[in-house]
């Protein structure tokens, strides 16, 4: 089976071990990100170069997810009561080809996908949707 491993980027070494074990069981891992090539250095976050890299990484992840039969998602320990449903809603919107407008900054690599419009604040959103 073709499997996509989804986890926090800082766990990429752990995901490499999981990938090796699953490969021994006859599976193919589609997650290119786990090999450490999708790292953004703090100095370029928020720059044009950084956004271009985020878009490249997001497209890699999008293609890898599309090519998988199964996604294995690794949860993070709860630090505060969070629900995270908005991230699922965001993903469904991408999958359903909905118009997506993100208010505020970038949170995940998928914010850099070309179908995501960005505005800095609610007033700009109102202007955009007028």
Can you summarize this structure?
The chain is an alpha/beta fold and 130 residues long. It contains four helices and five strands, in the order E-H-E-H-E-H-E-E-H. The chain has a three-stranded parallel beta sheet with strand order 2-1-3, with helices on both faces. The protein has a two-stranded parallel ribbon with strand order 4-5.
Describe this structure in words.
This protein folds into two domains: 1-76, no CATH class; 84-130, no CATH class. It has four helices and five strands, in the order βαβαβαββα. β1, α1 (12-24) and β2 (28-29) form a beta-alpha-beta unit. It has helices at 12-24, 48-67, 85-95, 122-128; strands at residues 2-6, 28-29, 70-73, 100-103, 116-119. The termini are far apart. By secondary structure, the protein is an alpha/beta fold. The strands form two sheets. It has a three-stranded parallel sheet with strand order 2-1-3, sandwiched between helices. Strands 4-5 form a two-stranded parallel ribbon. It is globular, with a radius of gyration of 16 Å.
Tell me the strand percentage band: 5-15%
Q: What sort of overall outline do the alpha carbons produce when their principal axes are compared?
A: globular
Estimated helix fraction: 25-40%
Radius of gyration, in Å, reads 16 Å
C-alpha end-to-end distance: 47 Å
Q: Helix-strand pattern, N to C?
A: EHEHEHEEH
Helix tally equals 4
Q: What are the segments in which pLDDT stays under 50 over at least 5 consecutive residues? A: none
Would you tell me the overall average pLDDT? Answer: 87
- Widest β-sheet, arrangement of strands: 2-1-3
| Strand tally | 5
Main sheet overview:
3 strands, parallel
Oligomeric grouping of the chains: single chain
The count of domains is 2
Structural class: alpha/beta
């Amino acid at each position: 089976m073709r499997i996509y491993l989804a986890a926090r980027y800082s766990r990429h070494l752990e995901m490499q071990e999981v990938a090796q074990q699953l490969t021994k069981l006859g599976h193919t891992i589609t997650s290119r990100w786990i090999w450490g090539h999708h790292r953004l250095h703090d100095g370029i976050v928020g720059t044009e170069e950084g956004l271009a890299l985020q878009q490249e990484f997001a497209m890699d992840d999008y293609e890898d997810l599309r090519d998988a039969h199964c996604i294995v998602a690794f949860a993070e320990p709860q630090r505060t009561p969070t629900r995270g449903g908005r991230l699922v809603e965001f993903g469904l919107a991408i999958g359903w080809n909905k118009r997506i407008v993100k208010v505020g900054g970038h949170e995940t690599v998928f914010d850099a996908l070309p179908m995501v419009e960005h505005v800095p604040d609610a007033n700009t959103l109102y202007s955009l949707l007028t």
